[in-house]
Amino acid sequence: MYVKFSKLLRAKILICLVFLLLLSHGVCFGSEVEELRKDLLELEKIVNPFVRIFQKVSRLVAPSVVSIVAEGAYGTATNPHDEESPLSSPDGENNKSQDSNKPSFGSGIVIKETGYILTNFHVVSDFENGKITVTLHNGDKHDAVLIGQDPNTDLAILKIECNDLREATLGDPESVNVGDWVIAIGNPFGYSQTVSAGIVSAIGRTHITPFAKPFAYEDFIQTDAAINPGNSGGPLVNLRGEIIGVNSAIATRTGGFQGVGFAISMEIANEVISDLIERGRVVRGYLGVGLQDINDSLAAYLNLKSKGDVLREFHIESDKGAFISEVWQDTPASKGNIFPGDVIVEFGGREIMNIDDLQKAIRVSKVGSNVAVIVIRNKKEKLLTINIDEQPGNMSGRKYVTVRAILGQTSLNVGLAVETLSPEEEKAHGVLVRHVVSNSPAERAGILPGDIILRVGSSDVKTALEFQSVLKKFVDTGVSVSLLIKSKGYVTLKY
Q1: Total-model pTM
Q2: What is the pLDDT of residues 83-99, one digit of tens each?
């Protein structure tokens, strides 16, 4: 039977149908929400122990972390808000301000309950005559004294008059692995006791900070835990509450955190802490060389196309070892007959696979000891004995010879490195002796750095290239040759 509905009745029926539809969906939505909440509660029970680890590590380590402000009329402050280079300290170490009244901000780690605090050198450098203030976890402030510093590792030790501090536990560097969870604690932008978390992104990073050659001691842990201006000197902590690194540098194009931070490994820190506390400086041996791994970067440095070109140019059969890119004068290396182009493959009985291996071997060598060193030179192994001197405070005033200056030089075989005189020197006549290898034919002939060679045999020489070309004819045939040296006269080279 056909039933005719009025317009009003049809509207009422439509409204009821819509209401029933919404009601049914509402029950569905409500059911789904409740189900999701139950799932999250169950998952929280699983995750909560992991979350509690971060909470407990923070509570354990935070009392061992301090805030540092260095200021004073004689200081050269760092400005954490200046634009930074792509690779720098998080406190603007690469942008020293001319405003000596601007303070430097950083963090520190209590390493002895009697008031000894580890921090970065760049946080407190140049403020010895100013004022350094340390703020503890509980807000107490103390004047600090800088008792030790080591710019070559970017570490320093402060001392405050306070006992019964929470001494941090230092971790085992060998236990650090890529992928480990870590926590960074510090004073970023002045916000004390700030905690950030991430993982270890890489280990063994080098060439992070611009140390003065030839003393670069680097072993950095890379992390994506947030590190910002003010974090420098603070700890990088593992989930056992142990300090595995000292936050020191960031890679950034903005001056702030961009996911790549660096902490000095405790392997480096452990080597210097005792010396800094007891002596105020680090006593270590050194070679006095510039080092590079044998790779494409070395090729670029030498204006070659690839690593293969390096191997061919220097008659090297393998990329293993530490390549000597420069030798400083009057150093253990120069006295021990090491010169640019050598590749060190063994040092003190330790196999050397790269520059990191060599740096570690040098660091553990005792000052005054004689160390057996094996180098590769012209495809042959050569055994040298190096007497380890104490590393000087700096190398200012000393000259050095780079491998680029002697690349391809025949005179290297006779122990000479020469360079063309500038037009202003001696009217561009002759070549300047830049380096003489100890116990070489050149040294036995009485040639010294600074001598000017005017003639090889009967040929005048005006450039280093001419010198090499003429000398090569004598070297290739093994015939002795006389050299005319300004102010000395003739000397004879015997191979």
Answers
A1: 0.70
A2: 333 455 666 544 444 45
